[in-house]
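Input.
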Amino acid sequence: MDFISLNKENLTSEHICCAISNNNDPQVISKKQWLRERFEEGLVFLKADARGKCFIEYIPAENAWAPIDANGYMFIDCFWVSGQLKGHGYGRELLERCISDSREKGRKGLCVISSKKKMPFLSDSKFLGFMGFKECDAAEPYFTLMYLPFDEKNEPPKFRESVKHPITDNEGFVLYYSCQCPFNAKYVPIIENTAKENNIPFRSVHIDSAQKAKNAPTAWTVSALFYNGKFITHEILSEKKFLSLTEKMKG
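Output.
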C-alpha cells in the first residue's frame, strides 16, 4: 500500500478519506479549507492511496485545536482505519510513520485524546497501548490523554484544568464545534434547523481558531454538546439521535 501526504498542491485533486465526495460537497469544502490553513502550522495529513477511511492527521501540539499543555509534543488530531482496510497493518504503519516524522522534527513525543472504553471519533486506547502509549491525564466524563514520550525524562502533556470538570453557565442545549471534522458542515445545520422547528432551546458555538479551542469548556473541541451547563456527548448527532436525546433530557 502506498501512502500520500496531502499538501496545498495536491489538496484539490486528492480525497480526504473521511468525506469521499466531490469538491462541491459542503463537507469537503469545509475540511479542505481547514486543512489548507493548517499546513503552514505544521499539520500533516497522511492517507492510504485507497478509497476508504485510512489516515492519520497530526500537528505540533502548540498549534493543536485542543485544550492541552503539551509544548514540544506532536498532537494526533485524528487516526482512523475502517472497513475493508482494517486488519492489514495499515494503522500500525501510519502510526510508525508519524512517530518517525515526529522524531525527525525534534518533537518530545506524541499525544492524543482517547477514552478507556472504545468510543466513536476517539482513537482506540487498546491499540495505542499496544504501540507504547500510556495515559497521562484525564477529563470528565470519559476523556483520557495518552502519550508516547521519546525520552522518559520529558514532562507528560496534560489537559488544562478548565476542562477536567466541564460545565458552562448556559441553559438549554449548546453545541461547541469546529471545522476540523467535515461531518459538522452537514450535521450542525441539520441540528440547528431541527431545534428551531421543534422549539428546542439550542445554540451553536463555532470554534474557529486554535486559541478558542484551547480555551473551550470541553476536552473535545471537534464536537461537544452541553445541556443546562452539563456535558452530554462528543458524538456528532443525526436529526433522529438529537431528537431522541432531547426527549431523554426532558425525562
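The mean pLDDT is 95.
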